[in-house]
């Protein structure tokens, strides 16, 4: 199963308890909305947050933004109610926190079918526990199991720092092996992956550097906590004009009759193989999808 290409450059979290944020989300130029019932919501207002999210998603008005509800874990007092409410609200996806193993996703997928969730409702998985880092390959492989409906990983770097005691320092040297393991696990499972949040949302320079690092790692986009992070995030995760032009050029060159039988050619002094043309096709498809979104 190959998933359709969908821009997921930016995914903005907002607490379900914050009605103003849920309203503002309808006007923000963001690819995905992560409507949160979990970490960003205090226990005293879990019920309020759930009701507000259901009302907001049911009312709609989110246009082509992908709407995702993050529920509390099933082991908490709120998880089952969240899951039932989320199914009723019918977002694009449900984000499952603190996934440790494939069984955690299989259990929720089973409940989706028991509760009669629509077929196009997918699951996203928070990758944020030490167990998940050790089981990343098996969790990612759920992307190949249509019954589980897994389409995206979301790195939970704050929880990962808490649980492992590794530091989230500039450059993220301690996190890098886990981030890259999860990138490999996502690709092996044929799904997308979004980078963790950058907490210091006033630090523009630090944020830009971390976005650039995420791009280099192969992340499809980044999770965000504040609207001011959206624009610089899109700048980093959208293919540049140069990348698009290069992608078109190498594909056009391979398409010329004299190159029909060739596996490797020279373009502007560089060796280019058919795999580069394939990579270019993806760049063009993403750029087209972004342009289609904007119009
Ligand atoms: N989503 C939507 N709108 C948001 C937002 C968010 N995540 N964060 C801020 N805004 C809005 C505010 O409502 C405000 O709108 P207004 O001026 O039109 O009323 C505007 O952006 C400016 O907000 P600002 O005053 O700079 O921030 P704040 O002090 O109100 O909030 C945070 C700061 C960190 C509490 C807030 O950004 C937030 O809750 N972020 C998300 C946290 C979260 O979900 N974490 C879980 C995953 S890590
Ligand atoms: Mg978390």
Automatic annotation (TrEMBL):
<dbReference type="GO" id="GO:0000287">
    <property type="term" value="F:magnesium ion binding"/>
</dbReference>
<feature type="binding site">
    <location>
        <position position="128"/>
    </location>
    <ligand>
        <name>Mg(2+)</name>
    </ligand>
</feature>
<keyword id="KW-0479">Metal-binding</keyword>
<dbReference type="GO" id="GO:0006107">
    <property type="term" value="P:oxaloacetate metabolic process"/>
</dbReference>
<feature type="binding site">
    <location>
        <position position="70"/>
    </location>
    <ligand>
        <name>substrate</name>
    </ligand>
</feature>
<dbReference type="InterPro" id="IPR005000">
    <property type="entry name" value="Aldolase/citrate-lyase_domain"/>
</dbReference>
<feature type="binding site">
    <location>
        <position position="159"/>
    </location>
    <ligand>
        <name>Mg(2+)</name>
    </ligand>
</feature>
<dbReference type="InterPro" id="IPR040442">
    <property type="entry name" value="Pyrv_kinase-like_dom_sf"/>
</dbReference>
<dbReference type="InterPro" id="IPR015813">
    <property type="entry name" value="Pyrv/PenolPyrv_kinase-like_dom"/>
</dbReference>
<keyword id="KW-0460">Magnesium</keyword>
<feature type="binding site">
    <location>
        <position position="128"/>
    </location>
    <ligand>
        <name>substrate</name>
    </ligand>
</feature>
<feature type="domain" description="HpcH/HpaI aldolase/citrate lyase">
    <location>
        <begin position="9"/>
        <end position="227"/>
    </location>
</feature>
<dbReference type="Pfam" id="PF03328">
    <property type="entry name" value="HpcH_HpaI"/>
</dbReference>
<keyword id="KW-0456">Lyase</keyword>
<dbReference type="GO" id="GO:0016829">
    <property type="term" value="F:lyase activity"/>
</dbReference>
<dbReference type="InterPro" id="IPR011206">
    <property type="entry name" value="Citrate_lyase_beta/mcl1/mcl2"/>
</dbReference>
<protein>
    <submittedName>
        <fullName>CoA ester lyase</fullName>
    </submittedName>
</protein>
<comment type="similarity">
    <text>Belongs to the HpcH/HpaI aldolase family.</text>
</comment>
């Amino acid at each position: 199963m190959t998933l359709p290409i969908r821009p997921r450059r930016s995914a903005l979290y907002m607490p379900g308890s914050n009605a103003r944020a849920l309203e503002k989300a309808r006007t923000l130029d963001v690819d995905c909305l992560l409507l949160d019932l979990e970490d960003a919501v205090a226990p005293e207002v879990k019920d309020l947050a759930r009701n507000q999210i259901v009302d907001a998603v049911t009312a709609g008005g989110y246009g082509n933004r992908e709407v995702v509800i993050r529920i509390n874990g099933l082991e908490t007092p709120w998880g089952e109610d969240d899951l039932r409410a989320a199914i009723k609200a019918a977002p694009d996806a449900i984000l499952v926190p603190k996934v440790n193993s494939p069984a955690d996703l299989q259990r929720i997928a089973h409940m989706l079918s028991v509760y009669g969730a629509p077929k196009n409702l997918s699951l996203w998985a928070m990758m944020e526990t030490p167990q998940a880092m050790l089981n990343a390959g098996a969790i990612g492989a759920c992307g190949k199991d249509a019954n589980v409906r897994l389409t995206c990983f979301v790195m939970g770097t704050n929880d990962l720092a808490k649980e492992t005691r590794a530091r989230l320092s500039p450059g993220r040297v301690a996190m890098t092996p886990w981030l890259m393991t999860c990138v490999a696990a996502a690709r092996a499972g044929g799904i997308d992956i979004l980078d963790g949040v950058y907490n210091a949302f006033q630090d523009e320079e630090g944020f830009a550097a971390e976005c650039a690092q995420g791009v280099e790692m192969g992340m499809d986009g980044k999770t965000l906590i504040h609207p001011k992070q959206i624009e610089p995030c899109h700048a980093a995760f959208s293919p540049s004009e140069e990348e698009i032009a290069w992608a078109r050029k190498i594909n056009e060159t391979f398409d010329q009759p004299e190159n029909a039988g060739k596996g490797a050619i020279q373009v502007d002094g560089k060796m280019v193989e058919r795999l580069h043309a394939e990579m270019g096709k993806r760049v063009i498809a993403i750029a087209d999808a972004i342009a289609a979104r904007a119009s």
